[in-house]
Write a structure and sequence with these properties.
This protein is mainly β. 0% of the residues lie in helices and 45% in strands. Strand 28 (378-384) and strand 29 form a beta hairpin.
């Protein structure tokens, strides 16, 4: 039996900010909604919470019967040596995507070709995962591709749990006879078991709420031990400036997939979530309103711990915390060079000690930070006219090492 829970909504006190001042990029078809329609009763549940408070109201609703999966596989075992890089590369005229598992030295240990787009590939404990043809598949380090379970054809994004036993996806479906009204869900599927709808809310532009844009859908960011980090992101808008995808995270939160407890992380589009780390640490870059960033804001366990002034002449984003959240790496691009058509952007890498305030910086054009594993280097991509290289960067010296050259690299989707 499928269990359905309504997503908590906090009594927000934030000031509404016009969204027109921020360029946004939707992740799937520029935010186009699926054509499938359903009639649902909107959830109207309010709860007060302060991160990471567990005092919430949750309203259970009777579920719908779950279709039996065509198979009941067991979760694939993680590789004996974790830390493989998951790389996805569009194969040009072939119309397929190459998916690769690569060591930090650049050696490919497993690969396959799929018809799904590169952005649909995600990293997880057992390898590279993707949605295709109504199923979720995983490429393992042994070289095999395993079908691990079902997914709706209109699912948006995919995440895999830290233990590899579950995966999550989001859906947005139009409500019949109600123009502009959409039912948004986050569903968790147990590999070889049942599914649970852990978040279920209606987006209705005629009844806006303080914790979401007027029209919105769910976006999935990451699945950590704390829970699933998600966004309530605006639909129907595209953009092409640096960090545009990050601008979707103005209204972000963490949901516990077991208790369905929701804890707000950011609650205004002028300071969207850039990174989530240990001890519920968050980073956001505050938009000055004139195109640049004037503050780097840090919170820990829901409390503000630092507000560092910035010049306002740069845009900033793609922050990644070190494993202990004592250091953070991020990028800046001058406002004057941040327009559409300026890619690859003249990016500068910064590594900041949050306690000391010490900053190290290096100019690395076309940089896109991706991950900072415990005890390891920063992993990133570098875009150029020759293609997209996969690189590692020493966080102490900022020395750059090429893992995969631009001629054979691609989009770094994460680490196993």
């Amino acid at each position: 039996m499928q269990t359905r829970m309504t997503e908590d909504r906090e009594m927000a006190t934030v000031r509404a900010v016009p969204l027109a001042t921020i360029t946004l990029l939707a992740l799937t078809g520029c935010g186009a909604l699926p054509s499938s329609a359903r009639t649902v009763e909107p959830a109207a549940v309010l709860a007060t919470a302060s991160a990471p408070s567990t005092s919430h109201l949750i309203n259970a609703r009777e579920g719908l019967p779950m279709a039996a999966p065509t198979a009941a596989p067991s979760p694939p075992s993680p590789p004996a040596s974790s830390g493989l890089l998951v790389v996805a590369r569009a194969d040009g005229g072939a119309g397929t995507t190459a998916v690769l598992l690569v060591t930090s030295a650049g050696r490919t240990v497993a690969s396959t070709h799929i018809t799904a787009e590169p952005w649909r590939v995600v990293a997880g404990p057992a390898g590279a995962y993707w949605m295709q043809g109504g199923r979720v598949d995983v490429l393992t380090a042994a070289g095999g591709v395993i079908d691990i379970g079902p997914v709706p054809g209109d699912a948006g994004e995919l995440l895999v749990s830290p233990d590899g036993g579950e995966y999550a996806y989001d859906t947005s479906r139009a409500v019949t006879r109600s123009p502009g009204v959409v039912e948004n869900r986050i569903t968790v599927q147990r590999i070889g078991g049942g599914s649970t709808v852990i978040a279920d809310r209606v987006s209705d532009p005629s009844r806006p709420t303080a914790d979401a844009p007027p029209t919105w859908m769910y976006g999935l960011a990451t699945w950590t031990q704390a829970g699933i980090v998600f966004r309530r992101e605006v639909t129907g808008t595209c953009g092409c400036a640096p960090f545009d995808m990050e601008m979707l995270a103005g209204y972000s939160a963490v949901i516990d997939p077991v208790t369905q407890t929701v804890t707000s992380l950011t609650s205004e589009p002028t300071c969207p979530l850039s990174s989530f780390g240990a001890s519920w640490a968050t980073i956001c870059f505050h938009d000055s309103g004139s195109g640049g960033v004037d503050q780097l804001r840090v919170t820990s366990s829901g409390a503000s711990t630092a507000r560092l002034n910035m010049s306002g002449t740069n845009v900033a984003g793609y922050a990644v915390f070190a494993a202990d959240a004592a250091l953070v790496a991020y990028e800046t691009v001058p406002v004057a060079d941040s327009g559409c058509g300026s890619a690859p952007y003249p990016t500068t890498l910064h590594v900041l000690g949050l306690a000391s305030g010490e900053v190290r910086a290096a100019q690395i054009a076309g940089l896109h930070l991706r991950q900072w594993p415990a005890g390891g280097p920063l992993y990133a991509t570098v875009e150029s006219a020759a293609g997209t290289a996969v690189v590692s960067i020493d966080p102490s010296t900022l020395e750059l090492h090429t893992v995969m050259p631009a001629s054979s690299g691609g989009s770094l989707r994460g680490l196993t």
